Amino acid sequence: MKFDLWIISVLVFGVATLLLPPGINAGVTEEQMRSAGKLMRDVCLPKFPKITQDVADGIQNGNIPNSKDTNCYINCILEMMQAIKKGKFQLEQTLKQMDIMLPDNYKDEYKKGIQLCKDATVGLKNAPNCDPAHALLTCLKNNISVFLFP
Fold first, then answer.
1. With CB atoms 3.0 to 4.6 Å apart as the test, which of 49, 65, 134, 136 could cross-link to 71 if both were Cys?
2. Could you tell me which residue, 37 or 134, shows the higher pLDDT?
């Protein structure tokens, strides 16, 4: 499992930096971002058989049901994005990944939304229902006008 996450992290997060000239820190194209999101979705979706393609598409479009299965699916994606770890929002890591994985035209809006949501997981327990993931994604959806989720 850890090896799979490592491979995907290298593929998803490394491609953008490997393709850039030394000293340049720019986001990816929207197409690259969506491809990376598809990789994450393809890893997490099979782990949660109660999450249908329609439910995952709904989450992607901002309809975020609050149930154990959907929350834990969201948690899986957020962990792969390095945005959440054991139910705790990883602010600094999220900001670093955002610089790598988002097109430049999304970054300012996301930085603001991320700052507004930095305390969204405080006081929530991860087990057994992955509640912090739901709270974080809902906060981000409510505070970022261009909502993106794999």
1. 134
2. 134
